[in-house]
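so my prof wants the structure for this chain in the tokens format not the other one, which i didnt know existed until like an hour ago. anyway here's the sequence
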Amino acid sequence: MFEQAFKNLDDTLRRESGCQSELDYAEQSSWLLFLKYLDDLEQPRAQAALLTGKSYSFILDEPYRWSVWAAPKDDKGEIDYNVAMTGADLLDFVNGELFPYLQKFKQSAESPDTIEYKIGEIFGEIKNKFSDGYNLREALDEIDELRFQSQDEKHELSDLYETRIKNMGNAGRNGGEYYTPRPLIRAMIRVTQPKLGETIYDGACGSAGFLCESYEYLRASKLTTKQLETLQKHTLYGKEKKSLAYVIGVMNMILHGIDAPNIIHTNTLTENVSDIQPKDQADVILANPPFGGQERKEIKKTFPIQTGETAFLFLQHFIKMLKPGGRAAIVIKNTFLSNADNASRELRKELLSSCNLHTILDCPGGTFIGAGVKTVVLFFQKGTPTEKIWYYQLDPGRSLGKTNALNDDDLAEFVALQATFAESDKSWFVDVADVDEETFDLSVKNPNAPEEDPLREPWEILEEIAALDAESAEILVGIGEMV
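here's what i got, hopefully its the right format
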């Protein structure tokens, strides 16, 4: 229904000199979508109030509502181009009036969990990158074709937006930073099995893929109005450092049906882990923290195990943020399992002693497009030391890439076998008592893999080549005699 509008929007963005990549396309379409969504949210509420004789207080003052500045309509319900701004006038309004007005909402909002606060956060983080007012006019017209009224419409828009996030993640070398493959997320959720009433947390939420998929997982069961309110308002929590990812994460959750997402724009690692209280802890943690980043010295010093690897700092944060008995599934570089430096060894020791690291999923190369590293997923429960680890070596039987991505079927066996920790040619156990107490090396070494044919000696290969050559010569002679 809306796919063509998204394609037309992309065509417009490609003509815009201020937008040069998929990251720009995602950013610019996000603020436009947000304002259209806000208008679609408010107009029915205002009409319902009018029918019942009640007053309705709009979030935005009239000049700044989508239906007034972006898409004023005539009597036929079509955009009135005699009134609608375009060209330089439109740019002047957006840059000089609209954005400054929206940015003020952060200061005036009652609390961070309100839609007003999200408005101020979003428009305080991004800029309008349209430099041509006529291109902006076309973009507004395309966005106005979209509607957020029914669940079917929201579902289609969320799918289209997810595709946009995926394209953005594939656009740069840090693809995994923006986009975690949804089949992998869904498998991680099915293993951790979050329940309604539990809190779910991602301290490096990016585009909010884990939170959105968790919402869909819990939403699949029949919920009462009160349960749905609990799911939307008191279940899903995230933090994100980067401005673009924060904006996209908020918009992604809104499109999935969460009006005021509980995402905070902050650097999670600046929070001193010793200050985390039981009231701050979560029942379930699902995350794919960024790899290879660097933090300031004063930040590293707040962690018991000091390291220059951002993902290792996040892992310490997640262990601390997990409630006793809470479950976690964390994506991390596979080198974490075997690195010989002191921080890696200490962190493996801490994880094994404070949590039950019951499962390690070994992901193949290409799982994360453009990430350039192999990854594993650590599944653990806090409170009981690890005795045995169940490993699973994921092998989809093909090379993964942009045109051949991971899918749900690839992970179906893992989820099924993990439920009973079954052994197979791809899965096995490691007894922690057998792990070297000096290195705590947890490397993936599959003892059940079918044996490969042994390498042959060079002279054997040469003899076979000679025999094949002789056989070919004999066949050619026979053919020659028949001619």
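also thought this was worth mentioning. Residues 45 and 51 are 10 Å apart (CA to CA).
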